[in-house]
Amino acid sequence: MRQKIIAGNWKMNKTPGESVGLAQAIKAACAKVPKAKVVVCPPFTALAAVSGVVRGSAVALGAQNMHWEKSGAYTGEVSAAMLLDLGCSYVILGHSERRTYFGETDEIVNRKVKTALAAGLIPIVCVGETLAQRKESQTEFVVSAQIVHGVAGLGADLGRIVVAYEPVWAIGTGLTATPAQAQAVHALIRGKLTELGGAALAQTIAIQYGGSMKPDNAPELLSQTDIDGGLIGGAALDAVSFMGIVNAV
Asked: Any idea which residues carry the catalytic annotation?
């Protein structure tokens, strides 16, 4: 059985000091939650502080992005080695906000995924359609293309990734895909992973849902056959709300 993974994406929120308090509260609460893998992804400036809090605990540390090169003249970027040195074991790649605001393409995501895996990081690969694309019945085409191109050429390493389905229209809007809508796309993703790596491998890959998941809708979403956790945004900034989702597992 695939382990549920609940990851909190704090985005551009929380100073290092504020992050310590949030991480401490989550760490304390997670001591009693062995069934879910819990990951916190603070901004780069807070990674060191949060790492000091969660190191050696049941809470894993993740970053929100990274560059595909090992080092070099890439002002403002961070490398996989830098993240590893801070204690990160996960990294979010291809988030819709990176794609929308910073022009990241499937090719860029693929380069980052390969670099992360080569370094020993677990990439959380994000895919999802916009509201306009859903209204035009393009969800299957868009999500399939993001999967196929985003994880191309991984071979056996395909089994080391996590996928997060984020309907862009449900991120930070308060809108949420119905459990049936979410399950349908998760099943589509698992089908594409099966085509790429075989059924046995595809069944081992966790697929998270990320789109306004909250404590009140988490139980029904997490009960769906192919939904293996959540990539949580707004609700991750409050320990009580975040743990409400973790406890739903």
From this structure: 95, 166
